[in-house]
Amino acid sequence: MTKKKIRVLGAKPGLDGHDRGIKIICCALRDAGMEVIYTGLRQTPEQIVQAAIQEDVDAIAMSVLSGAHDYLFPRVMELLKEAGVTDILVIGGGIIPEEDVPQLKDAGIQAVFGPGTPTTDIIRFIENNVSP
Amino acid sequence: MYDAKKLKEIEESLDPWARKTQEVLDKRPERKDRFETLSGIPVERVYTPLSEPEIDYMEDLGFPGDYPYTRGVQPTMYRGRLWTMRQYAGFASAEESNRRYKYLLEQGQTGLSVAFDLPTQIGYDSDHPMARGEVGKVGVAIDSLKDVETLFQGIPLGQVSTSMTINAPAAVLLAMYVQTAAGQGVDSAKLRGTIQNDILKEYSARGTYIFPPAPSMRIITDIFSFCSKHIPMWNTISISGYHIREAGCTAVQEVAFTLANGIAYVEAALEAGLKADDFAPRLSFFFNAHLDFFEEIAKFRAARRLWARIMKQRFGAQSPRSLMLRFHTQTAGSTLTAQQPQNNITRVTLQALAAVLGGTQSLHTNSMDEAFSLPSEEAVQTALRTQQLIAYESGAANTVDPLGGSFYVERLTSGIEERAQTYIDEIDKKGGAVAAIEQGYIQKEILESAYAYQKAVEAGHQIVVGLNMFQDEEVPPKNLLRVDPGVMESQVAKLEQLKAGRDSIAVDSALKKLKQCAQGSDNLMPPIMEAVKCYATLGEICDTLREVFGEYTAMSTL
């Protein structure tokens, strides 16, 4: 039996237009054999949660470089919880000061990846933490 | 440029030299089989007059201040006046940013550069649902003329030049600036500065678009036309390769995609009935200063020569000022590392030096802590001092185009120009820059280069000091700048107060007139000026235009 492919939603919440990072990660995840859906820019947390449910993804990878992660990441988690979704791995990245990481993890973001992270680390983290 | 007999002599001496070199290579091979620039241009062992035998001094280089401006746009360059030291800054509220501007001016900065927050850049007031979490984060929050008045409180707008990184709502922010100056008693004819106003790279790389391409191009040409009559010293656009490069393209692509966008603006303005020599002198450019030192210097020189040729040959511009590519430079934010952040000071120094050797008109040097957050005051000071060191200590500013005539730099300059021209031809075939963006071609090219670079870093082919080589234990940085989370509440409160205190009948009437103008074809600037004057908000003005123009939806393909 062939193994089911991991499905990931690459997402840009908020107004930030820096999409180099998320697009590269999406390419790397795809090249690692995952199925990747990329939302494009300017997604509200509501749109992201809806897309994640509709696309039945195993993981959401969000990227914010504008500093709005402190509102947007926890908001996505809140909406997932409200929708009764507990089995989607949610990770984040971007320009995120170290001191913000604990509160994001408390909100349910399972890992935060900063600048310079090799894509292989992200691939491994997703592979180790989801069971499709 | 070279005597044929002399060239022959060099050619004849090449063989003995190659034999001697082979002996060295047999004992000690070179570090790599193949050397190349970051754009992938092959780099030879050594360059000689044979590398560029056809180069014609008067035709290809010329004197500084003369066509084709390869050596610079002014005859004396930095011997006359140094480049403008202009640090991009702005965060939180207008009050807070005003303090930072005054600090920078006290520290010897010579021009202002305003960073707006994302809601402002996308035409939302601070109380818009989409603004949640973003107010005051990447720049200052501006909702109305009132905020701009506060932003420049005590800064004499008749004396300082101000650059504003604002694109889709550029007309509105320019109107607010003109009104603020008027309030200080400064006539618009005296104002110097720049609005970025470059929507095409927003679609392809930066993301702060509002309207679809056609109405966006109309707004831009309306600004060109209005400024040529009323704000003659204002740079009406800053055609930006910076963000395209940050998004991951190469130096060659940066030149090509930027100049292709420039061609699209010129064509749009000509189509709108403007004359090239009426608006082209106020076009300005904005480039990135990246890692590959010589390639970057050559890039700036190539961009100048190529643009001069395009303006003269393709568009028949006559005025020398129409042919001159004047540009701002910022060091490459994407090359800053979170690992060993102090190394960023050195990276920025090299990049800034390349910009100066390439003949930039103004410069922003990044701060060492920008891989973590907006820069702290201390980090900004070091970044500004880096420019001052280059200007006053290094001697690099003492002669014009010091690398002109370097066999390597001249070959690279021509190499970049040739390759960029090939891209521009390709874009022309696709129907021009707007069509190429709508087809996703530019975005695809950028992503391919970005991904290739990332793979090269991860494979260790591209060394990043402190990241994939010479790593050390990391200590989280201290004293990072934090934007006060209360800024949104106070901005929203200010908005409520503003709306309660203004003449709402005047606002309604101004917005109605703006809507009618947008539905027709008259210049949009006068009704925008009127709306701004009676304190209509940025969001109200942009919403009025949204009703008529609609909104752009980007492709989200990888």
Task: Report on this structure.
The complex is a heterodimer of chains A (132) and B (558). With 132 residues, chain A is α/β, with parallel strands linked by helices. Chain A has one domain: Cobalamin-binding domain (Rossmann fold), CATH 3.40.50.280. In chain A, strands 2-1-3-4-5 form a 5-stranded parallel sheet, sandwiched between helices. In chain A, strand 1, helix 1 and strand 2 form a beta-alpha-beta unit. By secondary structure, chain B is of the alpha/beta class. Chain B has one domain: TIM Barrel. Chain B has 22 helices and 10 strands. Chain B has a 5-stranded parallel sheet with strand order 1-10-9-8-7. Chain B has a 5-stranded parallel sheet with strand order 2-3-4-5-6, with helices on one face. Chain B is globular. Chains A and B meet through helix 1 and helix 3 of A and helix 4, helix 7 and helix 18 of B.
What brief labels describe this structure?
heterodimer, A: 132 residues, alpha/beta, Rossmann fold, 5-stranded parallel β-sheet, 5 strands, B: 558 residues, TIM Barrel, 50% helix
* CATH homolog superfamily of chain B: Methylmalonyl-CoA mutase
Helix content of chain B: 40-55%
What is the CATH class name of chain A? Alpha Beta
Put simply, the count of helices of chain A is 5
Rg of chain B is 24 Å
Largest sheet: spatial strand order of chain B: 1-10-9-8-7
The overall number of domains of chain A is: 1
What is the number of helical segments of chain B per DSSP (H or I, 4+ residues)? 22
CATH architecture of chain B: Alpha-Beta Barrel
Low-confidence stretches of chain B: none
Shape of chain B: globular
Q: What is the overall pLDDT average of chain A?
A: 96
Calculate the terminal CA-CA distance of chain B, rounded to whole Å. 47 Å
Largest interface: A-B, 38 and 46 residues
Q: What structural class do helix, strand and pairing data of chain B support?
A: alpha/beta
Residues in helix, % of chain A: 40-55%
In CATH, the topology of chain B is named TIM Barrel
- Count of strand segments of chain A: 5
Largest sheet of chain B: 5 strands, parallel
Report the principal-axis shape of chain A: globular
